[in-house]
Every structure is written in structure tokens, then in C-alpha cells.
């Protein structure tokens, strides 16, 4: 599996997925016209990485996301939670630069059985 790098646009975040290190990052604003299509490579990469039993560090560095992106983020977190429950090593870092993103991170992560950190990027 190759490294994936998607450059950010006005409506979509930068995505970095490295299968050799298990490092994943989504950074910027996320409100693409079709969130499911945009996030499909992330979900596919994640499923393959889980199959390969790799350690995963997933970093969310979002400034804004719309409702359809939030569904995709929840799907990603669900895959990570399941992998963690099956004994996989997972680290989730949720970076926030304002109260809205802090609250979003708390809402998404507090109900999951998953190791995570909320990190201020201010």
C-alpha cells in the first residue's frame, strides 16, 4: 500500500496517510460537495491498515467541518474503536483551536472506548 497525500482545497482538508508508520492526519476545513467520496480513500486505507495489524496514530486537526463530514469522521472513529477493542494499538489526537472544535472533539470521543488526547493548538 502506498502513502496517500491529498492536498487541501477551499472546501476539503489535507489528508496524509502513511502505511509504513500508521500515521494519519486530516487537517483544515472539511465541507466537500460529496463527503463520502472524499473520505472513501481514508476509510479504505484505514481498513487495510487494520487488516495489516499496524499501530495507528490518527490526528484530527480540523478548523471546521459540515454535517456530512461529521458522519465520515464518526465512521473513521468507529473503525478505530473496533480495532482498539480487538487489541490493535490506536492513538487519536484531536487538535482544537477554539471552543467549538474542543466541544466537537469531546462529543465525538467521550463515548468511545478509545485512547485519545484533546490538544490545544492555540
Report the order of strands and helices: EEEHEHEHE
CATH topology: Transcription Regulator spoIIAA
Overall residue-averaged pLDDT value = 96
SS element count, helices: 3
Q: Order of strands side by side in the largest beta sheet?
A: 1-2-3-4-5-6
Low-confidence stretches: none
The CA-CA distance between the termini, in Å, is 35 Å
Helix-residue proportion: 25-40%
Sheet of most strands: 6 strands, mixed
What is the total tally of β strands? Answer: 6
Based on secondary structure, the structural category is alpha/beta
Instruction: Tell me the β content.
Output: 25-35%
CATH level-two architecture: 2-Layer Sandwich
Instruction: Work out the radius of gyration.
Output: 13 Å
Task: Please give a quick description of this structure.
The protein is α/β, with parallel strands linked by helices.
Q: What does this molecule look like?
A:
This protein is an alpha/beta fold and 122 residues long. It has one domain: Transcription Regulator spoIIAA, CATH 3.30.750. The chain contains three helices and six strands. It has helices at residues 35-51, 67-85, 99-109, and strands at residues 4-6, 14-18, 23-30, 56-65, 90-96, 116-120. Strands 1-2-3-4-5-6 form a six-stranded mixed sheet, covered by helices on one side. Helix 2 (67-85) links the parallel strand 4 and strand 5 (90-96). The longest helix has 19 residues, at 67-85. The mean pLDDT is 96.
Features:
122 residues; alpha/beta; Transcription Regulator spoIIAA; six-stranded mixed beta sheet; 3 helices; 6 strands
Amino acid at each position: 500500500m502506498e502513502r496517500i497525500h491529498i492536498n487541501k482545497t477551499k472546501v476539503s482538508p489535507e489528508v496524509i496517510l502513511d502505511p509504513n508508520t500508521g500515521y494519519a492526519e486530516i487537517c483544515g476545513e472539511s465541507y466537500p460537495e460529496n463527503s463520502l467520496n472524499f473520505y472513501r480513500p481514508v476509510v479504505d486505507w484505514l481498513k487495510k491498515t487494520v487488516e495489516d495489524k499496524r499501530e495507528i496514530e490518527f490526528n484530527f486537526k480540523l478548523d471546521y467541518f459540515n454535517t456530512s463530514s461529521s458522519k465520515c469522521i464518526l465512521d473513521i472513529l468507529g473503525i478505530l474503536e473496533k480495532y482498539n477493542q480487538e487489541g490493535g494499538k490506536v492513538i487519536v489526537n484531536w487538535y482544537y483551536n477554539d471552543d467549538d472544535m474542543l466541544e466537537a472533539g469531546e462529543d465525538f470521543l467521550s463515548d468511545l472506548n478509545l485512547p485519545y488526547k484533546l490538544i490545544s493548538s492555540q
